[in-house]
Amino acid sequence: MSWLLAQQGSMAMHKMSGEDYFESSDGSIRIWIEQDSSIQIKAVAKHDDPVELSAQEAIALATVLREFAGRI
Fold this sequence. Notes:
Elements lengths: L2 H5 L3 E6 L2 E6 L4 E6 L3 E6 L11 H15 L3
Antiparallel strand pairs: 1-2, 2-3, 3-4
């Protein structure tokens, strides 16, 4: 995967405790691989509002999900 795609806009890729972990720069979206068997997604915006994505952010998110799916 091109990590540059996932880092454009307000999206940023991080590693955490040896696990694969993705977090948007504002912290509203978090995705990680749990026990090498599932993908966990947490999307929470301020005041329980929906998390809004631009087209570019949606493409970056889809790229991360595809990459993670290939690892489990």
